[in-house]
Design goal:
The protein is α+β, with helices and mostly antiparallel strands. The protein is 51% helix and 18% strand. The chain has helices at residues 47-57, 65-81, 89-103, 105-115, 121-143; strands spanning 2-5, 11-17, 24-30, 34-36, 42-44, 86-88. The radius of gyration is 21 Å and the shape is elongated.
């Protein structure tokens, strides 16, 4: 009779009617998303695990619980949009990096240093260079001079 996507897009609420007795009822359909860990084991995807891992990188930074929840939702939406029911744990880390970089660059460096196994000062310098290059691109866009009138 009626179908609606939930707020976060993770489920579909359907209003149905029994063809025999004409009684109405509601079903909620969800897609399952599994994480394949390095060991080969699989477990259900959990936003809470995303928040927990990122929270450590954000410790002492001006990042709220709401910010973390929004980041976890973005990560889940990115993963679900791949269309795959099983996601490699490494892919989840990659999906976290972009939104975390936008949220807080220091937390991004902390997370990236663990996730990408930085082994030297040069690894940090390379990551900082990439961040600075991103700032330069934005700064040029913001400060581009408008053509002067003749």
């Amino acid at each position: 009779m009626d179908s609606r996507t939930s707020d976060d897009g993770a489920s579909i609420r359907r209003r149905r009617q029994c063809p025999n007795c004409n009684r109405r009822f509601t079903t909620v359909e969800t897609t399952s998303l599994s994480v394949v860990k390095r060991s080969g084991a699989t477990e259900p995807f959990s936003r809470d695990k995303i928040v927990g891992g990122v929270r450590k990188a954000c410790q002492g930074r001006p990042v709220s619980e709401d910010d973390l929840a929004i980041l976890a939702q973005k990560v889940e939406e990115t993963l679900r949009s791949s269309g795959s029911a099983e996601i490699d744990a490494y892919e989840i880390g990659l999906a976290i990096l972009g939104p975390l970089r936008d949220l807080d660059e220091v937390a991004y460096l902390r997370f990236a240093s663990v996730y990408q196994a930085f082994e030297s000062l040069e690894d940090f310098e390379a990551a900082i260079t990439v961040l600075r290059a991103g700032h330069t691109d934005h700064d040029e866009d913001d400060t581009a001079e408008e053509p002067s009138a003749p």
